[in-house]
Amino acid sequence: MAAADALAKVRNIGIMAHIDAGKTTTTERILFYTGITYKIGEVHEGAAVMDWMEQEQERGITITSAATKCEWKGHTIQIIDTPGHVDFTVEVERSLRVLDGAVAVYDGVAGVEPQTENVWRQADKYNVPRMCFVNKLDRTGADFFRCVQMMIERLNATPLVLQIPIGLEGDHIGVVDLIGMRALTWRGETQKGEDYAIEEIPADLAASAAEWRDKLLETLADVDDSVMEKYLEGEEIAADEIKAAIRRATIAGKANPVLCGSAFKNKGVQPMLDAVVDFLPSPLDIPAVEGTALDGETVLLRKPSNDEPFAGLAFKIQTDKHLGKLTYVRVYSGTLESGSQVVNSTKDRKERIGKIYQMHANKREERPTAQAGDIIAVQGLKQTTTGDTLSDPANPVILESMTFPEPVINVA
Ligand code: GDP
Where do the annotations place GTP binding (predicted)? Predict the structure, then answer.
């Protein structure tokens, strides 16, 4: 596969949420459905009565990596840890800088909460395309439409409601897909391996579904000219055209697809993953990253291509029990080779690249090289700290233009 084709199938995303909205549960379910924690279909007989949670605990799967890779329908999804629980913005801003799109997870009872509001505003600043997942619809007091209204009022968002819930609280069994005009249901005691059933829209939701589909097309027409034309002419708009328009509007930051469900009850996660692939950008969809030459003034652009000189941003440093210091790097352009020499252009120091690792939730994989769009961990960097740019020594560039306040360290 040509590099550009492969890059078009990459989604570097963050999941942002107020504490307790379900970020961990949603991430864990994503890793499950993408086959990291279990290979769906490989489960032996009796799976239906298996206690999935217990098994998981036994395996002790926790997501501690700053970036975790998984696969969904021929696409690579990299989940970059986005701290949503802190008010100090440095780490949040840096993670927003290295991701291409985000999923905001909401508690369907509490709606839009302050920490989501903070991160949402920071994401506005960096033009991060976003979609929304209204979680916990099984909880007492869940109100999907109130949450959507809060997105408009508190976040100044333009929600594109793509689903409405079927039932709430104990009766929450699925969603109406407003693009396909069909019901997706997870009935009974949903096990995590279970796929959804596709059904007719329940009769009592038919009018509401028609109304919300119309609202979807109307909102989409407001932000997309080709939909506007057809909408005004009263022409039928095919599902593929609707999806393409949603993708354009989302990537342009003009609108936010909204989906819903209950991660904990295993409802709504697979369609949400489809939406990540369908609507959030690949590294090719975002503008070339802008930096400066070493003079700090001359503007340089780095396109997401392997033909460009190497440029990457160190965004997180972690200490691994076995590997020691690992520096997480987002590669924006060119190729990074293990064993090669690069320049830390921020500090004007040479650095030798040790081993390069692709981090998964439960394993790491050594790679000889990393390319544009990749997010990897590098061993062996001695002087690099977060926010530093690494680049091709012959073509140095400084990517981090943000000035962060130095953290105050209190020495007792
Ligand atoms: P985080 O702080 O955003 O990472 O939230 P967690 O994923 O840790 O979830 C916080 C709590 O809410 C945990 O007790 C979860 O089991 C619970 N939770 C998460 N998703 C759901 C859901 O869809 N429904 C219900 N009822 N509880 C949920």
Answer: 17-24, 81-85, 135-138
